[in-house]
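Translate structure to sequence.
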């Protein structure tokens, strides 16, 4: 890979990270009448240092949860460099899933990843150079039009698989008629792939076979479009009026999360919208009720028959972030209880496993810490969702 290619990939990577790091439109606290819910203290009693992650620059969100309390993440130092995924065991030991081991995809770059019981899957983009020279025109910030030329590049999308020991198992090429942004894996090995139409930019979600072959589109009734008010509001507030840019951001920040034999497609909108998809393609939509005022959705994780929904809220001086965590009823979307953590947990809990919360954060010395805590239902009280 030549220097120009490396620069191009790094620029595209940083642009993508900047896009993902923008705050979503604030969660709407409808009429300021969010219900009073019980409060459950969560006491973190174990802090385990992770020596292999010493000195990393930070953690990329989202942090994902596997089975048996495994935590999957990418560190900020790996993004745009080797792009590896790291698995942290409850013991603190780690396993790396290395991009350089993907030998059957040219110039592989891991876009998204998805852990299962026995494997780690990743959405990978690869590119190769053609023999033709192409010329393109672009506009500089000062209004000047510039023309550049270079070799034609062929871009392809793949889903690759690793064993949980870090060994590389192989890739399937995605044969789908749209640009993928996210994906999830059913226990059968088939995929749900979500992304954008190549021409219109409208959201697309499809059932894809384990071979990578397109099966059929899945209708998400009530989903966003370029005409949705939430998209237009996002365009006005954070995209300089560009509806297509706002729609792209909303699609690209969507998450697909495993929940037993189902997959949850989570749109991070003003009102958090969850599409629960079963292997047959049947969909159920759940609207999470009004959350804390001036907060944005950080993550949603299944937890013992409920959803652990976590929001972040900036401090009044803008220098800090508060994590607000709630149990939500998956059937109704209503808030059930608020969780109050005994110690800072970074940007939220990564996993809930066997009655225990696991979180990863970085301390002031730059050490990465694995935290373990348990809820104390005996100490429950009441609180308002908008309280810090």
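Result:
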């Amino acid at each position: 890979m030549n220097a120009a290619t490396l620069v191009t990939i790094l620029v595209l990577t940083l642009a993508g990270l900047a896009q993902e790091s923008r705050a979503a439109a604030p969660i709407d606290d409808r009429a300021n009448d969010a219900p009073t819910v019980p409060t459950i203290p969560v006491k973190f009693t174990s802090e385990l240092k992770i020596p292999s992650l010493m000195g990393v620059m930070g953690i990329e969100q989202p942090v994902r949860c596997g089975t048996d309390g495994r935590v999957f993440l990418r560190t900020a130092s790996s993004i745009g460099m080797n792009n590896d995924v790291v698995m942290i065991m409850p013991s603190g030991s780690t396993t790396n899933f290395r991009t350089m081991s993907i030998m059957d995809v040219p110039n592989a770059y891991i876009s998204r990843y998805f852990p299962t019981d026995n494997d780690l899957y990743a959405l990978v983009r690869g590119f190769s150079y053609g023999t033709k020279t192409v010329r393109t025109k672009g506009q500089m910030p000062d209004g000047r039009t510039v023309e550049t030329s270079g070799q034609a590049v062929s871009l392809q999308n793949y889903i690759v698989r690793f064993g949980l020991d870090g060994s590389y198992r192989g890739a399937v090429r995605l044969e789908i008629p749209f640009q993928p942004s996210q994906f999830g894996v059913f226990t059968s090995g088939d995929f749900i792939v979500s992304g954008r139409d190549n021409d219109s930019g409208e959201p697309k979600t499809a059932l894809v076979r384990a071979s990578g072959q397109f099966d059929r589109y899945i209708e998400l009734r009530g989903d966003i479009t370029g005409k949705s008010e939430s998209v237009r509001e996002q365009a006005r507030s954070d995209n300089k009026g560009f509806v297509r840019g706002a729609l792209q951001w909303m699609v690209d920040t969507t998450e697909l999360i495993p929940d037993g034999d189902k997959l949850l497609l989570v749109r991070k909108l003003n009102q958090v919208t969850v599409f629960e998809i079963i292997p047959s393609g049947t969909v159920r939509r759940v609207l999470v009720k009004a959350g804390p005022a001036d907060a944005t959705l950080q993550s949603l994780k299944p937890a013992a028959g409920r959803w652990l929904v976590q929001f972040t809220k900036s401090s009044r001086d803008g220098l800090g972030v508060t994590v607000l965590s709630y149990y939500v009823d998956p059937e109704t979307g209503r808030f059930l209880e608020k969780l109050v953590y005994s110690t800072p947990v970074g940007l939220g809990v990564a996993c809930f496993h066997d009655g225990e919360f696991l979180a990863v954060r970085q301390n002031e010395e730059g050490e990465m810490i694995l935290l373990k805590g348990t809820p104390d239902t005996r100490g429950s009280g009441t609180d308002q969702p908008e309280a810090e």
